[in-house]
Amino acid sequence: MRRKIPTGLIGMVHLKALPGSPGFAGDIDAVESSALADTATLLAGGVDAILVENFGDVPFQKTVDGVTIAAMTRIIRAIVELSDVPVGVNVLRNDPHAALSIATVTGAEFIRINVHIGAMVTDQGLIEGQAAETLRLRDSLNADVAILADVGVKHATSFDEKWSLEQEAKDAWYRGLADALIVSGKGTGVPTMAVDLERIWQAVPEAPLIVGSGVNVNTLAEYSIAKAWIVGTALKRDGLVQNEVELTRVREMCHASSDGNSS
After folding, report:
1. Under a CB-based contact definition with an 8 Å cutoff, are residues 129 and 163 in contact?
2. Which 3 state secondary structure label does DSSP give 202?
3. Domain residue ranges in the chain
4. Residue 179 DSSP label
5. CATH class of 8-262
6. Residue pLDDT, tens place only, 109-157
7. Phi and psi (nearest 5°) for 144?
8. pTM for the model
9. What is the DSSP string of 104-128?
10. Are 5 and 180 in contact (CB under 8 A)?
């Protein structure tokens, strides 16, 4: 049975470097405070959902250490308690079991999986999808957590020389049993190609589509067939991903998304 997915504007909370990662500044309280401040700004601006990821933990691990799971669980539980909209989890680079476990115990309602099926070549090496294990873990935990699976994920290229966007979308939906498909540009903040969104919609018309990168107030109208838009960089001060979320930008984006939904 497919799970309920978030719709509308999904605002990103990019966590600063966590304990165990090279960039950790030594103060987990400060990391949590920053995350909660961004959450409060997103909520005040009117987002429809929030997605949290360990963005500061570069260079990323394929699967994360226990300390990362512990730190994310602590912070995401605090975000869930603060939030009146659905909260999601993405554990970079590709740890769906950690994300699902965190979501289950914190009350988060969805997870993003960068490589759900197939195999992709990334700066972490070859990453293989774990759809079978992830779906079985969700069943064993009796977790009502939606899986949002990337198709043609950013910062990666396919390992399969016969790969096509359409076939990956079909596999993720019909064989991987994802609850929604995410379509992104080539990297963080890079615009998603509207033609790619259209190609996937044509291939799997029943699958809910989510735009995963590069959305701003000027491009939102290009993605009208999507059910949701994940927005991070465009909501930050000066449009820089490392800066804090800015309330004016959130309100402008929420207003634009509301106009788009009503048209």
Report:
1. no
2. helix
3. 8-262
4. S
5. alpha beta
6. 999 999 999 988 888 999 999 999 999 999 999 999 999 999 988 787 8
7. -90, 70
8. 0.94
9. HHHT--EEEES--SSEEEETTEEEE
10. yes
